[in-house]
Specification:
This protein is an alpha+beta fold and 678 residues long. Helices cover 36% and strands 23% of the residues. A hairpin with an 8-residue loop joins strand 5 and strand 6. Helix 16 packs antiparallel against helix 17. The longest helix has 17 residues. The N and C termini lie far apart (86 Å).
Length: 678
């Protein structure tokens, strides 16, 4: 059935491209091969409506006009101006960055659109290499179920309605907004728009949308205000630290606090132990309390006194909370329903045929070359050619059918196609396809290699894509923005890593572990650079761990380029990042936490095995981690907002560590902070 459907739809495309006037549905039924299968008028109408919809979904612009001047019945045709891809010529550096831009969406919801865009460009002979610059891995992720419908609403300029749960809120609230655009900031997607209920501009994080997003297809479309800066709206006005606290930390501990300190004063050492004094900027007391509490007994607030009182209460609640009785689990949270896998679609084959003909027509090409060019198997290319041989202009006589030499294709691999001038030009890029590439280009600006390209290749290829795809695509691309924030120190680290990668030199890193409050010395053979989830990473073979590791560049405390060559062991390859940079293992520890409504953000920021609703708006979250000590720090940070359900040993350790930290705030004046203040 799928093959007959593809044949019918291809015949319909050829017919509508070749006609000079709009053809009525009945004329199409009578002339296009394949519609005779419809046993009744209603069956034909269903078949024809489905074909039109699927062709339009593939970017084929079917026009509607008057087919019969007497009756006024609608007719259909395809305008070549709207169908054909304008000529695009790319220089080698432009082809390189365009391939990288498409690769950014490889593991995301727009991966298919980006791949289709490359197919169409290749069918026009544009030399786009999707595997170029293998050392660079720009990666976009769109794990939020809401991303797809929100993208469509922004593309179509339509309002949306959804349920949204703010942090700390027990129940979700219904929202209806006019979306202006979506922004990726620090690895999270946000939609910006006018909130009809609030009557004001609002920003919503897609990961906090509950249930389905409804796109409102009736009523006026969305009008985006002129000059609105989506990135600035999402970034907002960050509060500047207004106060400073004095905090004492154990020698060799609390490295994240040290990095944010205004001043660090080394204290006396007691053997290998000792305390250093930090001057730590902060805006509000609860945030300071959470930051310091996460380090347990290794960090103590000395002053101000209100912060000491607040952290004392926080730690006492954390210790008490770990001994509380568990609540009922409730029901699993709603998420994106699993979608069963499906076999090859006729739409995929139709799309391939519309690309294959322009590429092979008039060129001296062979089956292996076409298979490699489009990423197909040789068997699939021959199968597509055999279907093409059955299609052509209405009449379907030998002079009307496309001429394909199947014997030559099977025996020598030579592809000989004739009588296919109707399909000689490649299909124009759809809005999704072109916008996915334009947005992907913006991600490349975060890569150090883009410094030499930003003003040249990136700009030039972006302009060519916008020109070829039209104003609507340019508008959509501008409404989807990606921002990877890096300071000067991280940017310099990127540049030095890129230089070492190009030169093939080993690196020595002084690295702060994201799981453990620990700084280690690493010798690393660089293998690639990764930009994903709002952060920049170095991927390389770590000689300390004897395996490939990803190093977040903002946690590299020091970097030295060593004067000898990198030597990655034979057989060691780069990691599969299709599931993200977090690499989970069956050896990891499963931890189950009961989280209060104000701590639901944990399920949004960290990958969870399961999330189960509890009464009162809280959740029970189970996550997998190779470092339980990291979860211990998270539990201490959350305090009364979290209880460890399992394993019990972690719950006991959390209560004990909270007790050890409380000892520093003893009311009898014997705590570390009190001794320091005297």
């Amino acid at each position: 059935m799928s093959r007959r459907k593809t044949e019918r739809q291809l015949n319909l495309v050829i017919c509508l491209l070749s006609t000079r006037r709009h053809l009525t549905a009945q004329e199409i039924r009578a002339t296009v091969y394949g519609y005779a299968e419809a046993e009744s008028e209603s069956a034909f109408k269903r078949m024809f409506e489905r074909d039109k919809r699927e062709l339009r979904d593939n970017g084929i612009p079917i026009q509607v006009g008057t087919g019969d001047a007497v009756s006024g019945e609608e007719g259909y045709r395809i305008s070549r101006t709207d169908y054909e891809l304008p000529e695009i010529e790319l220089l080698p550096d432009e082809a390189l960055v365009l391939g990288l831009a498409a690769r950014a969406w490889r593991h995301a919801s727009l991966g298919e659109a980006a791949a289709n865009a490359l197919f169409k460009l290749r069918s026009a002979g544009v030399p786009v290499d999707g595997e170029a610059a293998p050392g660079l891995t720009p990666a976009m992720r769109t794990d939020e179920p809401a991303f797809g419908p929100v993208w469509q609403a922004v593309r179509d300029r339509r309002p949306i309605r959804f349920d949204y749960r703010k942090p700390g809120q027990a129940e979700a609230e219904r929202r209806e907004i006019e979306p202006w655009g979506i922004v990726n900031l620090r690895g999270h997607w946000y939609v910006v728009g006018h909130d009809r209920v609030r009557g004001a501009r609002r920003v919503f994080r897609l990961g906090r949308i509950r249930g389905e997003v409804s796109v409102l297809r009736t009523g006026p479309g969305v009008v985006v205000p002129e000059g609105v800066d989506l990135r600035s709206v999402v970034a907002g006005h960050r509060a500047e630290p207004e106060r400073a606290a004095t905090v004492r930390v154990r020698t060799g501990a609390a490295h994240e606090l040290r990095r944010g300190a205004l001043r660090v004063v080394a204290g006396e050492r007691e053997g290998s132990d000792g305390w250093d004094t930090l001057t730590l900027p902060y805006t509000d007391t609860p945030d300071l309390v959470r930051r310091v509490a996460s380090f347990g007994a290794r960090a103590v607030v000395v002053e101000p006194e209100d912060a000491r009182a607040a952290i004392r209460a926080h730690l006492a609640s954390a210790a008490e909370r770990q001994g509380a009785e568990p609540d009922g689990e409730g029901a699993p949270c709603g998420g994106a329903p699993s979608v069963p896998s499906r076999g090859p679609r006729s739409a995929d084959q139709l799309r391939r045929l519309l690309m294959l003909v322009p590429y092979a027509l008039g060129r001296d090409v062979r089956v292996p070359e076409v298979a490699a060019h489009f990423g197909l198997s040789e068997k699939q290319v021959v199968s597509d050619l055999s279907l093409l041989w059955m299609c052509g202009l209405p009449g379907y006589t030998p002079g009307d059918l496309i001429d394909v030499d199947l014997d030559a294709a099977r025996e020598t691999g030579e592809i000989i196609i004739g009588n296919a001038e109707t399909l000689a030009q490649p299909l124009r890029l759809t809005a999704d396809e072109a916008a996915s590439l334009v947005v992907g280009l913006s991600l490349l600006e975060a890569l150090p290699e883009a410094e030499g390209l930003e003003g040249s290749a990136l700009k030039r290829v972006g302009e060519k894509l916008r020109s070829a795809a039209g104003a609507a695509v340019a508008s959509l691309a501008d409404a989807v923005q990606v921002r990877v924030e890096t300071d000067e120190a991280v940017a310099e680290t990127q540049r030095r890593c890129a230089d070492a990668l190009e030169a093939g030199q080993r690196l020595h890193l002084r690295y702060l572990s994201g799981y453990r409050d620990q700084v280690t010395e690493r010798d690393v053979d660089p293998m690639g650079l990764v930009v994903q989830d709002g952060h920049c990473f170095l991927e390389g073979y770590c000689h300390l761990r004897g395996d490939v590791r990803l190093f977040r560049l903002d946690r590299v405390l020091d970097l030295v380029v060593l004067p000898y060559a990198a030597e990655v062991p034979e057989g060691v390859g780069r990691r599969d990042l299709s599931s993200g940079v977090l690499q989970r293992s069956e050896r990891d520890v499963l931890v189950t936490l009961d989280l209060e409504p104000s701590a639901r953000w944990v399920t949004e920021d960290y990958v969870c095995e399961s999330v189960v609703e509890r009464s009162g708006g809280g959740v029970r979250a189970t996550l997998r981690t190779p470092a339980p000590e990291w979860v211990l720090r998270l539990v201490l940070r959350l305090g009364p907002e979290c209880r460890v359900v399992a394993p019990t040993t972690l719950a006991e350790e959390a209560a004990a560590e909270a007790g050890r930290a409380l000892a520093h705030y003893a009311p009898d004046g014997e705590g570390v902070g009190a001794r320091s203040a005297r």
